[in-house]
Please model this.
Amino acid sequence: MDIRTVFIDFEHGADYALDALGLTEDAGLETAVVLSLFTDRRAASDDPVPDGADRRGWWADGLGSDARDRVGSRLWLLWREKQMPSVLVRARQYAEESLAWLVTDGVARRVEVQATNPRRELLRLDIGIERPDAPPVRFRFDSFWRS
Model:
């Protein structure tokens, strides 16, 4: 059981969910997906970093035994990008990269990601997760691009 974490938007990130009694729980995959997608993974050395920002990333990524085992996604790199098909391709790739651990660790059989912009300045991620011993789950995250 996890504390339920919900996505707000790219600028504000995510926050814990509350009800009248305090923190709510998440018995599914929502919190794992939110943290995977919306925690800032360190930018690769060849990634253009927006506005001269630092390369971000989680400090403990450097402590692991497997250099490929990283937390978060590089979706933050797209925050100020123009709405173009090539950016949607990168959004899908970044989301798939951040969720690949679900398959590697046996939490899911398959993860499918679609990135679209159904209207001006909106990035939508549709995530489908096929689990080994449970019904599939779907998540949708919408966030506005900054122009």
Observations:
- Strands lie at 2-3, 5-9, 13-16, 18-19, 22-23, 25-26, 110-116, 122-130, 137-144.
- The longest strand covers residues 122-130.
